[in-house]
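sorry for the late reply, my laptop died twice this morning and i had to redo everyting from scratch. anyway the thing you sent over, i finally got around to it. pasting the sequence first so we're on the same page, its 357 residues, then the predicted structure underneath. double check i copied it right bc i was rushing
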Amino acid sequence: MAARKIDGKWYADFRFQHADGSVERVRKRSPVQSKAGAEELERQLRTAMLSPIYTTKEVPTFAAYADDFKKTYVLANNKPSERSMKASILKHHLLPVFGLMQLDAIKMHSIETLKASLLGKGLSRKRVNNILACLGKMLRYAHEIELIEVVPKVKLLKVAPPQFDFLTFEELSRLVEAVKDEPERLALILLGADAGLRQGESMALQWGDVDLVAGVLTIRRSSWQGLIGTPKSGRERKVPLTVRLQAALKAIRHLKSELVLCHQDGEPFTQSAIEAALRFGCKRAGLRSIGSHVLRHTFCSHLAMRGAAPKAIQELVGHSTLTMTLRYMHLAPSALTEAIDLLNFGQPVGSGLSRSV
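ok and here's the structure:
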């Protein structure tokens, strides 16, 4: 069976016969959760396993492996934005250094040398870690498909917690007030600030994802340079509408396109158009110019400041890990006091508890 559903998840599940007659069971979860997605993954995996790079006993060069890695693993498992990022990292940083080396010749010392070189060029520690993470994934996958026997250790740099900007309650009120007579711009701002949508998710939002009666958004897709894929987490999520966002969406209900945000001719908004609309609103409100992701930070920050539980925030914004959400929890000033108050519950005041030594 090429496509199989296991515990509610779609997998590519098949047996592959190698040239030497041996048979291998292959089972891999599909990044696109549908029968068609699993069948497409199975086709890609079979193509990869038939590639000469996987059938020869000779360890390939990094360049040869990288080319095949992009055509198979990256194509099957990464979103368009991730594919573009990996292609850039390979072209500008990894292939110039490791291209002619055999995979098993890449050791920890050569990786540390690369790290020092990247830092010496002035790249940020976060950027260097992105490059190292890409290399680490490639080497681990090479080990999984038995191209190399040992995976060299890839040690990431320590990076300070990321700083993020967000609008205060007063600043957001000013921004909303400044665009209250421009329904589309208001809806665009509130999709980020009151629902936490990423820019690509707002661009790909369709009226079929909006339940104005129940007051709920379903985030199913995201747009990147005109390409539609799944949200960053790879799964859909539901976000209840605030009263003002619900009203803003009702005010722009149209039949120009299935897209919620679009031009008069039904064409989708571009990234530059959305950023320009946001800059215009900020200028009118007398605020600093911000990017659309600041609205998402604002959503998370305001929830934390109002005392929302970290797990609830994570589910609403679609963070893949709770660690990402916990960045905002220092903004909840009452959290520590409320935690200690849980211990006070039920204890008599001035009970004079005795201690034994």
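Residues 307 and 335 are 7 Å apart (CA to CA).
thats about all i looked at so far, will dig more tmrw
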